[in-house]
C-alpha cells in the first residue's frame, strides 16, 4: 500500500461526494497500474506485488455479497481519504451532521442504519423499524400499502438526537465513496437480515419523460430508478425516500449484482437472468425489451436461518401441529410444502429438516443455492446439486440415483420435467420433501398428474393420478395474508389406497389450528416402521391410537 499522502495545499477542496469518489477511483487506478517502486529489496517488492494483487482481487469480488473483500476495499478507501487530511469544512460539506436540516433524507438514513448496524449487526434495519413503529400502512385511492416515507426517516433522526464522533463521520464518508464501487444506495441494506430487496419495479423509464405529451406534474419524480422495495416479515414495503438517482446507476447496480461466478451480461438477446451471490442470496434481473424498465429482485435466505418450527407455527393449537409435523418427517413420509410466493414454504422446509433421521443421507436439488442446509446441520451427510448452463434440473435430480442418498429434497419443483422425475424418484428414495406453488391439494395432484401425461410417462389419466397419489403422503399448505402474517392453512393426507383421496388432518380457522382428522392406519403403520423406538408408542397415542374419527 502507498504510505500516508503528503498534504497538498494546492489540491482542490472536496466538498461534493462526486469529486471525492472520482479522486479515490483515480488514485486506485494509478496504484494498480504503477510499476513497483525503485530501490525496494526483493522481499519488499514481493510484498508490494502481493498487495496490488490482493486489492485487484478485492475490487473484482467485493460485489459478490461476501463481507471480507468489501471490508478490504473500504480499508484502502479509508487510507486514501485519511491521506487527504480533509478539513472540517470539507467534512461538513460532504456530511453536514451538525446541521440536520441540510442533510438529505438519504444521508439521514445512512447515518441511522450505520448506528443500528454498529449495535445490532445484520438485524440493524429490523431493530430500526421496531423502534420506529415501521412500516406504517398508507392509504391511497387503489387501496392500502406499506411504506417508509421521508417524514418517517426525518422523524426518527430527530428523535434519536444523533451525535457522531470524528471516526464515525469518516466511516460514513468512506461508505458513501464505496457505494460507487458496490451496490449503490442499497449497499448496507443488502447486508441486513431481510427477506428480499427489489428496485426498478415502479415508476416509468427515463425515455418515457422525453415525450412532450406526458410532461406534466402528474408524472414528476415517478422514475423507475426512484423505486426501492424490501420484503420484511412477509410484507412488501416501499422505501419511498430512497432513489438510485439515475437509470445509469440502476443499470450499474444490476450488472454488479450478477457478477458472481461470471454468468455473463444482460443483453437484448438475453434480457433476463437468474444468479446467486456468495452469501446464498438469489438475484433475478431483467431489462428492456423483455421488461419495460431495468429491474432486479434479491431474495435473501439468511432471515430465517436459525428458525425452529416453534418460532414459525404459533397460535392456539400450534403445539399439536408442530408435533404432527415432527412425526410426519421423522416417520420418513413424502411431504409436499406448497403455497404462494412469500408464504414461508422455504423457511418451513428448512425448519423441518432437523426432524429427518440423522441416519439418512440428504441430497438436495435446487435451481440456485437457497437452502444452505450445511449451515444448519453441518454434521449431517448433505450434498446439494444445482442447475448450471450445462446441467438442467432433471439431470440434477437424476444424479440422485448415482449417490448413496436416502432422502431427496428439492427447493422448488418448477417444471413439468422435474415434476415427472420427482414422481419416478419417489419409488427409489426413502423420503422426499419439496416445495411447489400449488394453492390446494387438488391442484398439486393435478399438476403432477399433468406432468406425467405431458412428458409421455403415462398416457392413461387414471393410471397417472394413481401414480401421483403413491408419491405423496402429506401436503402442507402455507399461506400469507395481506398484512404479512404467515401460517399453515391446512395439512392433508393423500391416500394412495383410495386412488388419491384427500383426508384433511389440520386446518387454520378463526385464528387457531384445529384437528379435523387423523392419518389412516396404513400411514401410521408406515411411520412406525421408520420412526425411532422411543416414539413408536407415542405416535399411536398422539393420533388417538389410529382410530378414525
Give the structural class: alpha/beta
Overall pLDDT? 87
Q: Report the β-strand fraction as a percent range.
A: 15-25%
Total beta strands: 17
User: CATH class of the largest domain, please?
Assistant: Alpha Beta
Low-confidence runs of at least 5 consecutive residues? 1-6, 212-219
Shape: elongated
What summary fits the major beta sheet? Answer: 9 strands, mixed
Tally of distinct domains: 3
- How far apart, in Å, are the first and last alpha carbons? 76 Å
- Kindly report the name of the CATH homologous superfamily of the largest domain: P-loop containing nucleotide triphosphate hydrolases
Give the neighbour order of strands across the main sheet. 11-10-12-13-9-14-15-16-17
CATH topology descriptor of the largest domain: Rossmann fold
Helical fraction equals: 25-40%
User: If classified by CATH, what would the architecture of the largest domain be?
Assistant: 3-Layer(aba) Sandwich
Number of helices: 20
Fold blueprint:
Layout lengths: L16 H17 L8 H20 L5 H18 L3 H7 L10 H16 L3 H9 L3 E5 L2 E6 L1 H11 L5 H13 L8 H4 L5 E4 L28 E5 L2 E5 L7 H11 L14 E5 L5 E5 L8 E5 L9 H4 L5 H13 L4 E4 L6 H8 L9 E5 L6 H4 L5 E5 L6 H6 L8 E4 L5 H10 L5 E6 L4 H14 L6 H11 L2 E7 L5 E10 L5 E9 L2 E4 L5 H10 L5 H7 L7
Parallel strand pairs: 2-5, 9-13, 9-14, 10-11, 10-12, 12-13
Antiparallel strand pairs: 1-2, 3-4, 3-8, 4-5, 6-7, 7-8, 14-15, 15-16, 16-17
Amino acid at each position: 500500500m502507498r504510505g500516508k499522502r503528503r498534504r497538498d495545499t494546492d489540491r482542490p477542496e472536496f466538498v461534493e461526494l462526486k469529486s471525492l469518489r472520482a479522486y479515490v477511483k483515480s488514485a486506485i487506478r494509478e496504484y494498480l497500474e504503477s510499476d513497483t517502486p525503485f530501490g525496494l529489496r526483493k522481499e519488499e517488492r514481493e510484498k508490494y506485488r502481493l498487495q496490488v494483487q490482493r486489492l485487484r482481487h478485492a475490487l473484482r469480488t467485493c460485489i459478490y455479497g461476501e463481507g471480507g473483500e468489501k471490508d478490504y476495499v473500504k480499508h484502502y478507501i479509508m487510507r486514501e481519504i485519511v491521506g487527504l487530511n480533509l478539513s472540517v469544512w470539507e467534512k461538513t460539506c460532504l456530511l453536514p451532521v451538525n446541521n440536520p436540516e441540510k442533510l438529505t433524507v438519504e444521508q439521514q438514513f445512512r447515518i441511522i442504519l450505520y448506528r443500528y448496524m454498529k449495535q445490532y449487526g445484520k438485524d440493524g434495519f429490523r431493530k430500526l423499524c421496531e423502534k420506529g413503529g415501521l412500516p406504517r400502512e398508507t392509504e391511497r385511492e387503489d387501496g392500502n400499502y406499506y411504506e417508509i416515507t421521508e417524514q418517517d426517516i426525518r422523524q426518527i433522526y430527530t428523535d434519536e438526537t444523533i451525535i457522531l464522533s470524528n471516526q464515525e463521520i469518516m466511516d460514513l464518508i468512506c461508505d458513501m465513496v464505496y457505494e460507487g464501487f458496490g451496490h449503490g444506495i442499497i449497499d448496507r441494506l443488502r447486508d441486513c437480515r431481510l427477506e428480499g430487496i427489489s428496485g426498478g419495479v415502479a415508476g416509468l423509464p427515463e425515455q418515457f419523460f422525453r415525450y412532450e405529451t406526458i410532461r406534466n406534474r402528474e408524472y414528476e419524480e415517478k422514475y423507475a430508478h426512484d423505486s426501492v422495495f424490501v420484503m420484511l416479515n412477509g410484507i412488501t414495503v416501499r422505501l419511498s425516500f430512497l432513489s438510485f438517482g439515475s437509470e445509469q446507476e440502476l443499470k450499474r447496480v444490476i450488472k454488479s449484482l450478477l457478477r458472481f461466478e461470471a454468468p455473463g451480461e444482460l443483453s437484448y438477446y438475453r434480457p433476463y437472468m437468474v444468479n446467486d451471490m456468495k452469501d446464498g442470496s438469489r438475484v433475478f434481473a431483467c431489462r428492456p425489451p423483455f421488461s419495460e424498465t431495468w429491474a432486479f429482485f434479491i431474495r435473501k435466505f439468511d432471515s430465517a436461518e436459525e428458525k425452529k418450527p416453534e418460532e414459525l407455527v404459533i397460535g392456539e393449537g400450534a403445539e399439536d401441529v408442530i408435533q404432527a409435523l415432527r412425526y410426519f418427517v421423522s416417520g420418513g413420509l413424502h411431504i409436499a410444502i406448497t403455497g404462494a410466493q412469500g408464504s414461508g414454504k422455504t423457511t418451513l422446509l428448512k425448519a423441518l429438516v432437523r426432524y429427518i433421521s440423522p441416519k439418512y443421507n440428504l441430497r438436495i436439488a435446487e435451481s440456485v443455492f437457497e437452502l444452505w442446509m450445511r449451515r444448519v446441520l453441518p454434521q449431517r451427510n448433505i450434498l446439494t446439486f444445482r442447475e448450471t448452463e450445462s446441467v438442467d434440473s432433471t439431470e440434477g435430480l437424476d444424479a440422485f440415483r448415482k449417490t448413496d442418498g436416502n432422502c431427496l429434497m428439492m427447493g422448488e419443483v418448477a417444471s413439468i420435467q422435474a415434476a415427472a422425475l420427482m414422481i419416478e424418484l419417489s419409488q427409489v428414495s426413502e423420503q422426499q420433501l419439496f416445495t411447489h406453488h400449488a394453492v390446494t391439494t387438488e391442484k398439486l395432484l393435478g399438476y403432477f398428474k399433468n406432468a406425467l401425461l405431458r412428458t409421455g410417462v403415462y398416457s392413461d389419466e387414471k393410471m397417472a393420478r394413481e401414480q401421483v397419489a403413491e408419491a405423496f403422503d402429506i401436503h402442507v399448505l402455507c399461506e400469507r395474508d395481506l398484512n404479512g402474517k404467515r401460517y399453515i392453512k391446512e395439512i392433508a393426507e393423500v391416500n394412495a389406497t383410495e386412488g388419491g383421496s384427500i383426508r384433511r388432518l389440520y386446518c387454520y380457522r378463526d385464528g387457531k389450528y384445529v384437528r379435523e382428522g387423523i392419518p389412516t392406519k396404513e400411514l401410521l403403520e408406515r411411520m412406525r416402521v421408520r420412526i425411532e423406538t422411543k416414539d413408536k408408542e407415542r405416535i399411536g397415542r398422539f393420533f388417538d391410537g389410529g382410530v378414525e374419527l
